[in-house]
Amino acid sequence: MTRRIHSTALIEEDVEIGAGSSVWDSVHIRRGARIGAECIIGEKTYIAYDVKIGDRVKLNAFVYLCAAVTIEDGVMISAGTIFTNDRFPRATTSDLRQLRTSEPDTHTLPTLIRQGATIGAGCTIGNNLTVGRFAMVGMGALVTRSIPDFHLAIGHPAISVGCVCRCGEPVLRFAAGASAAANADETVCAACGLAYRIHGGVVTELTPPL
Q1: Over the chain (210 residues), what is each successive 10-residue block's mean pLDDT?
Q2: For 92, which DSSP code?
Q3: Global pTM?
Q4: Rounded to whole angstroms, how far apart are CA atoms 147 and 63?
Q5: CATH 1.10.1740.10 applies to domain 4-174
Q6: Among 105, 111, 10, CA closest to 52
Q7: Cα–Cα distances in Å, from 127 out to 105, 111, 153, 209?
Q8: Secondary structure (3-state) at 103
Q9: Cβ density class 73-91: b for 16+ within 10 Å, e for less
Q10: For residue 95, how far is the Cα from the chain centroid?
């Protein structure tokens, strides 16, 4: 499989892009970034130093991935999503005499997006957190804390309101403010038939795909 890289994309030194991946117009990928196979990097997306992206990841247009972000396999990040990595950012040192570098430093905190997760359009993703396997973050959400596997999170700040299937369809809606108390011995996705057990808000796959 051949790679496709648009002539206007800016790819810095020591960047790896896997077989079959496409990088579209005006993308900027900084040094040290690692991008897996069969990915799509949408137009005008920015990928910072040393960001790691797995296989078959879709980044839509205008996505901003800062340093210390890791994206696992099969993730979708929709248009206009912004990642952050500094909880207390300043442009300069406290005496205003020196501009702070953009290089990663002790203030730089990591963010991990686990396999199969979806981030909706226009989200803002905080730092020092994890978005779990096959979780789904609704469009426009502000994510300030970790989201468990298979949870659906929406709002400002984002909170879990239910569970979703691997296929993306909802399988359970939580009572208001009661995600940690959610229980179901078995709930089956009406769209694809995969089954799940939910105990204390923790989702276990009963029929995981082979």
Answers
A1: 95 98 98 98 97 98 97 98 94 92 86 98 98 98 98 96 96 82 88 94 86
A2: B
A3: 0.95
A4: 20
A5: no
A6: 111
A7: 14, 5, 16, 31
A8: coil
A9: bbbbbbbbbebbbbeeeee
A10: 36
Reference 73, options 33, 16, 30, 113; nearest CA is 113
Q: How many residues does the chain have?
A: 210
pLDDT at 30: 97
* Cα Rg, the chain, nearest whole Å: 18
Question: 52-61: long-range contacts at Cβ-Cβ below 8 A with a sequence spacing of 24 or more?
Answer: 54/115, 55/18, 60/121, 61/24
> CA 151, CA 165: separation in Å to the nearest integer?
9
Q: What local confidence, expressed as pLDDT, does residue 210 receive?
A: 67
Residue 109, pLDDT score: 95
H or E element, residue 186: strand 184-188
Query: Encoding tokens for residue 92?
Result: 């300069």
- Beta-bridged to residue 184, according to DSSP, are 198
CB 41 within 8 A of CB 47: yes
* pLDDT for 179: 76
Nearest to 49 by CA among 12, 80, 19: 12
The domain segmentation of the chain, as residue ranges, is: 4-174
